[in-house]
Design a protein that fits this description.
alpha/beta, Rossmann fold, 231 residues, eleven-stranded mixed beta sheet, globular, binds zinc ion, 28% strand
Length: 231
């Protein structure tokens, strides 16, 4: 763990990078309300529509033919109580619910909650409105899941420690995120104006190892990785 020492990036406009660990940080991040509550996240602004988001995680495979949702579900031995932070479009909640788990989601865009609840097969009360870690929840979850969320957050360390706080001892935090590992990355992750950070594996893995008893790395796709961490 260290304090990042940023220098401007010549490769990626609107980013600086840490010359110690290679983590990239956006210098032009949009306001979170604009991003997540004012309709920015819609087909009209060139983003995936809600049905496209469902296709993105269920239909499109990685290099070895596994969809994002199947990779995530297979990486965890989901059981008990599951909290999904940033839960649109609701597919993971649906899979977990059908396996008999108690599931709670968190979503910042209140207008999406009815759609997420329908996809998840839940009542709307199971989807909490707000930003994590501000949203209050129980603290006895078996799993906290954040798929493609941590890179959007301005204070990712606080977010990850907040997720750990909601877990029982022995519970697991699962995160998926764009990661730079040994110089490999996906350039498209730097075009997205909503990404606050593109982490180096060195940095994020050592942070997780400092705060969890076990950390397992998993590769969904080169440049897009997962960590399963045990409290
Ligand atoms: Zn750094």
């Amino acid at each position: 763990m260290h304090t990042h020492v940023y220098v401007p990036s010549r490769r990626f406009e609107d980013y600086e990078y840490c010359r110690i660990c290679g983590t990239y940080h956006s210098t032009a991040l949009m306001d979170k309300r604009e991003l997540y509550e004012d309709g920015y996240w819609s087909a009209e602004t060139g983003h995936s529509s809600f049905p496209e988001q469902i296709d993105n995680i269920t239909k499109f495979p990685n290099e070895v033919g596994v969809s994002k949702i199947d990779y995530a579900i297979n990486s965890m031995q989901l059981g008990g109580k599951v909290l999904e932070i940033g839960c649109a479009p609701g597919v993971l909640l649906n899979r977990a619910r059908r396996k008999g788990m108690t599931v709670i989601g968190i979503e910042p865009d209140v207008t999406l909650i009815p759609y997420i609840a329908r996809v998840a097969g839940l009542c709307e009360d199971s989807i909490l409105h707000g930003y994590f870690p501000d949203v209050k929840t129980d603290t006895d979850f078996d799993y906290a899941v954040a798929m493609d969320v941590v890179e959007h957050v301005e204070r990712p360390e606080e977010f990850i420690l907040g997720a750990k706080d909601r877990l029982k001892i022995g519970g697991h935090f699962f995160m998926m995120s764009p990661i730079i590992d040994k110089g490999f990355y996906r350039a498209r992750d730097f075009w997205a104006k909503e990404h606050a950070y593109i982490f180096s594996r060195t940095y994020i893995e050592s942070f997780l190892q400092d705060h969890f008893t076990e950390v397992h790395f998993g590769r969904w796709m080169t440049g897009h990785e997962c960590f399963l961490c045990k409290k």
